[in-house]
Amino acid sequence: MTPEPNLSRDPAHLRHGSNIGQSLTRVDGRAKVTGAARYAADNNPPGLLYAVLAVSSIARGRVVALDVDAAKAHPGVVEVMTSANRPALAADPDGKPNPFAFRFEALQNDRVRYANQPIAVVIAESLEAATEGAALLAPRYEAEAAHIGLDSDEAYVPPVVGMGYPAESYHGDVEAALAGSDRQITATYETPAHYHNAMEPHAIVAEWQDETLVIDTPTQGLVMMRGRLAELFGIPPESILIRSPYLGGGFGGKGFIAGPQILGILAAKMLGRPVKLVVRREQLYGPFGHRSPTRQTLQLGASATGQLSAIHHHARVATSRFEDFYEAAAHVTHTLYAAPALATTYDAVRMDTGTPLFVRAPGLAPGSIALESAVDEMAEACGLDPLAFRVKNYAEVEPATGKPFSSKALRECYTRGAERFGWWERPLKARTMRDKDGFLVGWGMGTATFHALMFAGQARAVIRRDGSGVVESGAHDMGQGAWTAFAQIAADSLALDLDQVTFKAGTSDLPDAGIAGGSAHTATVGTAIHNAGAAVIAKLAELATADQRSPLYGAGNAGVIARNGRLLRRDDDGRGESYADILARAGLDEIEGSGAGMPDPAANAQYAMSSHGAVFAEVKVDPDLGQVRVTRMIGAFAAGRIINPKLVNSQLIGGMIWGISLALHEEAITDRRSGRIMNANLGEYHVPVSADIPAIEAFTVPEHDPFVNPLGIKGVGEIGITGSAGAVANAVAHATGIRVRRFPVRIGDLLPARR
Amino acid sequence: MNWTVSLTVNGEPRTLALDDPRVTLLDLLRERLHLTGTKKGCDRGQCGACTVLVDGRRINSCLTLAVSLDGAEITTIEGLATGDQLHPVQEAFIAQDALQCGFCTPGQIMSAVGLINEGQAGSDPERVREGMSGNLCRCSAYVGIVEAVLDAQATLSDTTERAA
Amino acid sequence: MNRFDYVKPSTVAEAIAAASAPGATYLAAGTNLLDLMKGNVVRPARLVDITQLTELTRIETSGNGDVRIGALVRNADLAHESGFARDFPAVAEALLSGASAQLRNAATAGGNLLQRTRCAYFYDAASACNKRTPGAGCDARGGDSHQHAVLGWSEACIATNPSDFCVPLAAFDAVVEIEGVSGRREVALEALHLLPGTTPERETVLAPGEMIVAIRLPAAARAFARHARYLKVRERNSYAFAVVSAAAGLVIENGTIKQARVALGGVAARPWRARDAEALLAGRPAEPDVLQQAAEAALREAKPSGDNAHKIPLARSLIVRALQAAAQGTPSRMPALPASPFSSIPGVLHDA
């Protein structure tokens, strides 16, 4: 397939029919509400065996003994796979063929490098037998002392952070600016490790059909995964079919292959039968990545009137002992507030944990809560309202690069969000609002931002003889609404109604849709679909305009437009003919075009590209007991063209609730002695429940962006977290007069004695 | 040894010979009866994804031994619609976009049906929030879920009133 | 989950006989037992399924006005039984603040009394725990201990009892009816659970094979119905165990407290009845300084067992709040968020 990098901005190619922009209900809604939607673990092929992992209870050392005989003696247990007998792989799990191939554990040796690492797999005729078989292995270890915590080892400056950003970045003379500022604050904020905790545990059903490997597993990157599997198993990518029509949540946790999936495939290979391996909830806290804990120190300088002169944002982060991934927590400071001098610096420690990886709003989520807290602290030091302070320091160009923004309707978000919330009634002084029952009330806000990224993706569009369309891309629906939004774009790209277009996605044999991540999937695949549609329409137009029998003869390709399944003369839309007629006359069953979506280097060189937003939160706090409740939250966002407002609102509100969670609830608690996560379950690793969530409102403001991509799409998947976490933290500080700098805020932090 | 368990599943009487008393209702439904609409999120009663109705009451099927349920009537997400006609709770979940990834959705919907049957929440959003707090949603569709439950409850009480 | 014998007796006597074998345990709803078995925290050799013992599913009022709750009455059924909720509102509120609706629909009264601690080191089979393995040591000491006990703990164990239901039961002098091979006996609920001392593996006074068959609330507990609350501080607003909880009941006549009942949850290995506080309240008005003194008295012996010193002032404040709320009167309707501090002002719907 030939990628088409030409991101045409010719309006003639924009066939926005009536689908883009509509609040359609989810096309997969019916499947999901009836239980018919088939997730990976819902597959039960004939002859299925069950595999259950045994995982390590130490964080560092080696496995010296496993009671394989006891496990095998359990009725129904078929095999125990350990490092001693597992089939060979064609590539080393500890190899690094590319920067996004993360090292994983697939029983390559007896080493243990973090708690909950797979150390064996028990395969049985029933799930019950496999589960108990795993328990009967009773491993014995040679344990070494584990290093856990941000001070547990010597810190070093990492080579790069996040997606390859420099670990030290200076813009202007920060030290001088700080020294010369009227107001200075220095504050240190801590965020704990976070786990994705998608509701769907990682799962795989693997079957070797002769030389073909067929697997069902949730993935955010079908074709990338296929490529990695091909390397690992030494087979051509075409011999692998991955099906992932629905992900039960991804959040970054299903982007990369991990050991358990490989072990499921190996078990199927070893036994010549299909194998299902579903990772138990407690086992998810290890092999699949997590968000690094952070300790961030912010130094801000400002004039007496509240003009920022400098920000230095330093982040201490962690990575594993065997792999490099550094949470780019300080990078939010590059883009948000107009300080003439900026510095972002990092250092890191290696810990005996699984490798931290991408978690929804990587870098920005912990970075934003620290920056937004610090900005509020500075606003307070300057005696300014937090919103007034932010407006005063509004970045007209991206502070760290000086580039103009491709579009930035943040001012509109501030204005409309504040109005909707009633922000300007807010008293400046903390701990001055109470409700009628005496609970402390606080209002806080935060600025949301997320870079508008694009990866590379492809799509194929076909118009069939009956005039209907088929659009294909190996895209991923993890709840963001890909099935629906892409169908809307597909229909418009072919100028057809939604029900005349079949949209296919979710399998690895379709065109490579890249990765569903970075809030870039809709922009990337949407552009690819748009271009594929344009390509097929262009081919049709070529057929028609070259054919003397067509009413379009001689119009020239650019003289034709598509509408409602017909091509029409641009200068006389009474003259035209249907797709079906064109194909019939040409004797073709169908006509195909392909398209690609990818970032435009020229536009990226010229412009900074980000979504923005403003989030306002109200909390109530029990003055004596410290319990917190978010009672109101409003988010206004500017994210370019909105494909489906209904689904976008769900994404934004979902992100805002992650913000609440980051500020008030979630935290992985690791025992520093053992390295085990003591709350590796959904009972004690708190994510919000319904009772924590008020009637949240999110809306988007109009934003036209002619530079990000032809459709003007920015992302909405992650921005909701940013700004929101800080808004809640700031509201708590406003309610109580207590500034908590270690997240999540706990009851013990807000008791009267802490004032 | 086999244990004989008689259950009515979605209206269909079934007599099962269980070879293992450890089988939970959840694993029976998913792995043996292949009714995979009911989901396993945590297997420990901490997420609600496995919620089904047993004798009309919502429970966590992961913490229930199948062998202990002899004689019970089970309703799962697959048994909620009448032919092509969705249950009002299912309709409301689609209309309010009360779902994203959809994995917790069957449990949410069965829990909502149970909540409405219990009759404790009425039209008070706070009581709905509290009553639905046993169902986690990591996508965090809670706002839509509460709206959907309130809508469905209103639809169902209208229908009941008209029938009366 | 280990393999086990499964038996389903049809009478209490058969059940007791079956459960008296070593390694046997009763299975009711299983909401706690199956969780523990899945975590390999317990590995019983035999499950004695008592769910068919329908004689244990009744709520009855005896001639003297005592209410007898069969051990198999489901938590939700008890909380929603209108007469019961009217007469024992703090018990109903405690029940409805526990776990989730699904769990309350399944979990039984007797099972609730026997639920095990939520101490993470007890639940983690790889940690040292004197409760699981006597003499193994206690990894909660010096570990993550921010939720652990501040009263009645020992060097051997700092775990807390997680039950909500038991807290008002202790406050209102509930009695537990127990049947075993040697017949029937009764113990005060307050005496059912043991403090850890040097034998934290012994959690209750039950002998092997003994079964809780019923819980009795004395007729006299009805006297508190107009002034009774249960409040529970949580890190998440529902579906979470208590950081600290408190049950309070008052009999108020002409502005004076005639009788008081106070108990705490989440602070010790058993529901913690605060008799000193009760004695201090009797005969005095429900005024802030009096309530404060009662709270001081209740926590006089408290000391942190780890990183949990904040629980002591929190428990004091919660006692004051629960007493205030009780003094203001039981809400006419169960609050939308049962036991929430945000529902601690009676009769008010706190719509967010």
Report on the architecture of this protein:
The complex is a heterotrimer of chains A (about 750), B (about 160) and C (about 350). Chain A is of the alpha+beta class. Chain A has four domains: about 10-35 and about 455-600, 2-Layer Sandwich (Aldehyde Oxidoreductase, domain 4); about 40-145 and about 195-285, Aldehyde Oxidoreductase, domain 4, CATH 3.30.365.10; about 145-180 and about 290-395, 2-Layer Sandwich (Aldehyde Oxidoreductase, domain 4); about 405-455 and about 600-755, Aldehyde Oxidoreductase, domain 4. Chain A contains 15 helices and 29 strands. Chain A has a seven-stranded mixed beta sheet, with helices on both faces. Chain A has a five-stranded mixed beta sheet with strand order 9-17-16-15-10. In chain A, α7 packs parallel to α15 (about 725-735), α10 packs parallel to α11 and α14 (about 645-665) crosses α15. The longest helix of chain A is centred in the C-terminal third of the chain and has 25 residues, at about 520-545. With about 160 residues, chain B is an alpha+beta fold. Chain B folds into two domains: about 5-80, Ubiquitin-like (UB roll); about 90-165, DNA polymerase, domain 1 (Orthogonal Bundle). Chain B has helices at about 25-30, 90-95, 105-120, 125-130, 140-164; strands spanning about 5-10, 10-20, 50-55, 55-60, 75. Chain B has a five-stranded mixed beta sheet with strand order 2-1-5-3-4, with helices on one face. In chain B, a hairpin with a 2-residue loop joins β3 (about 50-55) and β4 (about 55-60). In chain B, α2 (about 90-95) runs antiparallel to α5. The radius of gyration of chain B is 16 Å and the shape is globular. With about 350 residues, chain C is α+β, with helices and mostly antiparallel strands. Chain C has three domains: about 5-50, Uridine Diphospho-n-acetylenolpyruvylglucosamine Reductase, domain 2; about 55-115 and about 160-220, Uridine Diphospho-n-acetylenolpyruvylglucosamine Reductase, domain 3; about 220-345, Enolase-like, domain 1 (2-Layer Sandwich), CATH 3.30.390. Chain C has 13 helices and twelve strands. Chain C has helices at about 10-20, 35-40, 75-80, 80-85, 90-95, 100-105, 110-115, 120-125, 165-170, 190, 275-280, 290-300, 310-330, and strands at about 5, 25, 45-50, 60, 65-70, 175-180, 185-190, 210-215, 230-235, 245-255, 255-265, 270-275. In chain C, the strands form three sheets. A five-stranded antiparallel beta sheet of chain C has the order 4-5-8-6-7. In chain C, β11 and β12 (about 270-275) form a beta hairpin. In chain C, α11 (about 275-280) runs antiparallel to α12 (about 290-300) and α12 crosses α13. Chain C starts with a strand and ends in a 24-residue tail after the last helix. Residues about 345-350 of chain C have low confidence and may be disordered. The chains are: A alpha+beta (about 750), B alpha+beta (about 160), C alpha+beta (about 350). The interface between B and C is medium-sized, with 34 and 35 residues.
